[in-house]
Design goal:
The chain contains 32 helices and 33 strands. With 1009 residues, the protein is an alpha+beta fold. The protein has a 9-stranded mixed sheet. Strands 1, 2, 3, 4, 9, 10, 11 and 12 form an 8-stranded mixed sheet that branches.
Length: 1009
């Protein structure tokens, strides 16, 4: 009997039960999808990070001093411990470097040139043979291969036999060169500690060539005389899951201790992997915790929508329940009926939701900005998703039956006497719970702003999700919406006074209806307010995140394209690099720059020298980071410039006659038309007149070209002494030159004694340390020299500087003039800043010229990398799901409440119809009533979203490493999209009102059952 009664009872209120079914299905499906999404995005983030991690980040090295006797023991121990540290056995390579050997024919020299031997497992996988073959073990003559740079420097070719002796081992070694090879990518991080192998020669106190690469067995047998061996582990981390991050990091960090315990006392382990994995574990936790914010907002909205439906259902059954109570039905019986009815609605949702989640995620991934991230998720229903689904469904069933249980104790007489009673203030408002909730929300948001993420340290150690911080935005939305309910009776009374003075029926009757029963309209208004706020907040967070990625990319690159590398090289010389870079396709502006760490009054700071005249085209500073515009900085940074003597034509050689008062080393300082400065050593000048010939062709490099005209900036001695230029000729033609000598040790083509202060732009933290502000001047120690500076601007953060890094910006030419005045070498062009609308053509040219030895930082590529990081971008998908669900709850809740309200007033509308009220007047009456709810909700929801967004959004937009964003996040409210959403939502809601009005007029809702 109970089962059929429950079914009959459920079908007696099809509209409300259908609304409850829709709310529960929407809640379970969306929350299951969000759960799948959060788990999948964490896995995808770990996988993507490991796939894109550099060699230096993932490789682990173990170094030890070995001999031929100890190597087998150490090798076995190292391989065992490295295999133990990883889930899958890593690829392990071993490399060796010998002691120094003397170049053939230089045995008797006091400072001979040296050779080194080496071995590297699997070298043939990273290098190509130019000629010959790879060396083999065995034989009295040692077979060796040599790199192409070392072969060019030493003249060793295939077939050449040499005899050498070690500086510590006098036994002669006969070596035959059997192959010449070239590394496929000499700049690869793998060779960062193998400079001799990648370059072929090292010059220092001794010049060393090599290494001559031999077979591993040969090296251990012949050259392992207490030399250093390095084992390198390259793990396959593609299958690493978020749960394995910290255990793997701990295992790798303990390798050194275990090797020492195993007897390898000289073993030294180096790996950045524990740090990378620990940081990734934190980032994964922060990403998951941040995605809980829209989940809790959605839970709150779903719970309220369901309770609103449950309250309507309980109100409709108040008399029915009272009658059952009067006929002997006990509380348990009534609870069983309510619970059975709730489960009848909730259980089908729990079964269906896990299968609806994946298609819903597929729809979300069709959004352009999410599809562009390149992350492809393939979630499927598993035990966890079913547990979430059943948990949400059961919680929904409990919410659905609570109002029915609350009224189960009233008798029929009590229900009759309670009907018609109402008030203008709800229980929550009377108790002040909304103010208390606002206080809790304020505390949670304050903690979020303080900690910068919804993750805090646990008392037992480690990190965990802080439930208060996570719930802060949701509580703020609820508290704000509940405070907005206080306006309903006040605004309705005001509307009643205004409309009562007008002769038209519909506005007056509609406003009177709302003012008479404000609490009836308060529930739908709160639902709509929260839904609108969640929708706008979701769009705002997504737009802010996308804008922040672009801001980060611009700030980190500084320009459209930034090229770095050695300022001088064999292929492109110091004056040839700028010519090649400025000629790259699509480049509209190019400037040399110096960028490097420097000491500024005992503070480590980034020193940036850039042509101030080109700041407007190159320097991408976000306007809010400085009170001065880039144009104002550009004008103010230009200080006194050094004079110059333009050399006629395109000279290839110079002949210089210099007179000095003492024997001193000297340098010639030149610059090209692009503004690159370069000094050329003139050697040690004798007292009196000296003639020096200078070859300018190496300044261009093998394939580079100089941008003419060249300019002579001056001559600089390494000690303060008289220095005079007596004659100058270019390619044999005399050039008139009359440099001034107003400073000891410097001969320049303009006055340098009174250059004035160096104009600079400082970061705010450095300005605070120096106690200087914009417009102030003072003496500051920069790179060991005291300079008079003038602060012409202060920025919160300098482009290309890391988060929290102090920085100084100066004009390139003015900075070089001060270096020349101090008899210091000019600053080299360590970077080139380029402006271009499309960086791809320039990048393609650079990829075709690896010999240029250039590292490019591409703004567009960096923006795509930041955007594609699953851990950083994962919040977007969650927000879109929350946004869609919020609109769904709002529409469904409004439809049900409007329909039920109209049905409850069918007698009232019947009287109005009998009195001759037209369909237009009925429509006007409903429109006025619902316009009050709609207008108040849209307005309050927008204001609430702006308020909460301002307080919360900048603190939940983090980098993929879960760190604060530089530059700071700016709130970006997409007002156009917001207005479109509000108009669309209002249109849908008024369409619902119009439909109800038509059904009322036609009598469909007025029919008695």
């Amino acid at each position: 009997m109970r089962g059929p009664l429950i079914v009959k009872r459920a079908f007696s209120e099809p509209l409300l039960l259908l609304a409850a079914f829709g709310s529960i299905l929407l809640a379970t499906t969306t929350l299951v999808a969000l759960t799948m999404y959060a788990s999948s995005i964490a896995d995808a983030g770990v996988r993507r990070t490991m796939e894109t991690a550099s060699y230096r980040q993932t490789a682990a090295t173990v170094g030890a001093q070995i001999t031929a006797e100890t190597f087998p023991t150490y090798d076995r121990a190292v391989r065992e411990e490295l295999a133990r540290a990883y889930a899958a056995v890593p690829a392990i390579t071993t490399s060796f470097r010998s002691d120094s050997y003397v170049m053939p024919g230089q045995d008797g020299r006091e400072q001979p040139e040296l050779l080194r031997f080496g071995s590297y497992d699997g070298l043939d996988r990273h290098a190509e043979l130019i000629s010959g073959s790879w060396p083999r073990a065995g034989g009295s003559t040692i077979e060796a291969s040599i790199s192409l740079p070392a072969s060019s420097a030493t003249g060793f070719e295939v077939g050449r036999e040499i005899v050498t002796k070690g500086r510590l081992d006098p036994r002669p070694v006969t070596v035959r060169i059997v192959g010449v090879f070239q590394l496929r990518d000499p700049s690869e991080e793998r060779w960062a500690g193998e400079q001799l192998l990648s370059r072929g020669v090292e010059r220092g106190d001794f010049t060393t060539y090599g290494p001559l690469m031999v077979a591993r067995e040969t090296f251990v047998a012949r050259f392992a005389t207490n030399v250093r061996a390095i084992w390198t582990a390259e793990p396959d981390l593609s299958a690493l899951t978020p749960e394995r991050l910290r255990p793997t990091a701990d295992a790798v960090a303990q390798v050194g201790e275990r090797l020492t315990a195993a007897g390898c006392v000289s073993c030294v382990v180096a790996s950045r992997l524990p740090e990378v994995l620990t940081q990734l574990d934190t980032a994964s936790l922060v990403a998951r915790s941040t995605m809980l914010i829209p989940v809790l907002q959605l839970l709150l909205l779903a719970g309220y929508a369901l309770m609103l439906t449950a309250r309507l259902l309980a109100d409709h059954r108040r008399m029915e329940v009272a009658l059952l109570r009067s006929r002997g039905a006990g509380t348990i019986r009534l609870a069983a009926l309510a619970g059975g009815e709730a489960l009848l609605v909730a259980l089908p949702c729990a079964l269906v939701a896990p299968f609806l989640g994946p298609p819903l995620l597929s729809l979300v991934h069709q959004l352009p900005w999410i599809r562009a991230s390149g992350v492809r998720l393939a979630p499927s229903a598993d035990l966890g998703t079913f547990l979430v689904s059943f948990g949400v469904a059961l919680a929904s069933a409990v919410l659905l039956m609570l109002p029915a249980l609350a009224g189960a104790r009233r008798t029929y007489v009590e229900e009759m006497s309670a009907r018609g009673r109402g008030g203008v203030r709800g229980l929550i408002e009377r108790a002040g719970a909304d103010l208390g909730l606002l206080g809790v929300a304020a505390l949670a948001i304050w903690q979020l702003q303080r900690y910068g993420a919804p993750v805090t340290a646990r008392a037992a150690g480690g990190l965990g999700i802080d439930p208060l911080i996570i719930s802060g935005p949701a509580l703020a939305l609820l508290a704000g919406g509940m405070l907005g309910l206080r306006l309903v009776p006040r605004v309705s009374k005001l509307a009643e006074r205004l409309t009562s003075r007008r002769p038209t029926l519909a506005p007056a009757l509609g406003a009177w209806q709302v003012s008479r029963r404000p609490l009836t309209y308060g529930g739908p208004a709160l639902l709509l307010t929260m839904a609108v706020a969640i929708g706008i907040l979701s769009m705002t967070t997504a737009a802010t995140w996308r804008a922040s990625q672009l801001d980060q990319a611009r700030h980190q690159t500084g320009a459209d394209l930034r090229l770095s590398g050695p300022p001088d090289g064999p292929e492109l010389g110091s004056l040839g690099r700028g010519t090649a870079f400025s000629a790259l396709p699509g480049v509209t502006a190019a400037a040399p720059a110096f960028r490097g760490q420097s000491e500024v009054s005992n503070e480590s700071a980034l020193l940036l020298g850039l042509d101030a005249a080109q700041l407007g085209e190159l320097f991408q500073l976000r306007p809010d980071l400085s009170a001065q515009t880039v144009a104002e900085m550009s004008r103010a940074l230009v200080g006194e410039q050094a004079g110059r003597l333009d050399l006629p034509g395109q000279p290839r050689t110079l002949a210089v006659r210099v007179e000095t008062d003492a024997e001193v080393p000297a340098r010639l300082v030149l610059s090209d038309a692009l503004g690159v400065w370069r000094d050329l050593p003139l050697g040690v000048l004798r007292k009196g007149e000296n003639r020096i010939d200078v070859d300018l062709r190496p300044l261009a490099g093998r394939s580079g070209k100089i941008t003419y005209p060249l300019s002579l900036r001056g001559l600089v001695a390494s000690a303060p002494t008289g220095l005079r230029l007596r004659g100058l000729s270019a390619d044999g033609r005399n050039v008139a030159a009359q440099p001034s000598a107003d400073l000891p040790g410097v001969a320049a083509f303009g006055p340098l004694r009174d250059l004035g202060p160096l104009p600079v732009v400082l970061t705010a933290d450095l300005a605070a340390t120096l106690k200087m502000g914009a417009g102030q001047a003072g003496r500051v120690n920069i790179a060991g020299r005291v300079l008079q500076i003038k602060v012409v601007g202060v920025v919160e953060s300098m482009p290309t500087a890391a988060a929290g890094q102090k920085a100084v910006l100066a004009d390139w030419g003015t900075l070089q003039a001060h270096e020349l005045a101090a008899a210091q070498p000019p600053r080299p062009a360590t970077e080139w800043w380029l402006a271009t609308d499309d960086t791809e053509p320039a990048r393609a040219t650079l990829r075709k010229s690896p010999e240029w030895d250039v590292t490019a930082v591409d703004q567009h590529e960096l923006a795509a990398t930041l955007r594609d990081d699953p851990l950083a971008s994962g919040l977007q998908g969650a927000l879109m799901l929350g946004f869609a669900a919020a609109l769904g709850f709002a529409t469904l809740g409004f439809l049900v409440n409007a329909a039920v309200a109209a049905r409850e007033r069918r007698a009232e509308f019947a009287v109005l119809r009998a009195l001759g009220t037209s369909s237009r007047q009925v429509l006007g009456l409903l429109t006025v009533e619902q316009a009050f709810v709609i207008g108040l909700s849209l307005t309050a929801g927008t204001g609430l979203a702006v308020a909460v967004g301002t307080l919360v959004v900048p603190h939940i937009v983090l980098t993929g490493q879960a760190s604060a964003v530089t530059p700071s996040v700016q709130l970006d409210i997409p007002w156009t999209a917001t207005a479109a959403m509000l108009v669309l939502m209002a249109g849908v809601l008024f369409a619902i009102v119009t439909g109800l009005a038509r059904r009322l007029w036609r009598g469909h809702v007025l029919e008695e059952r």
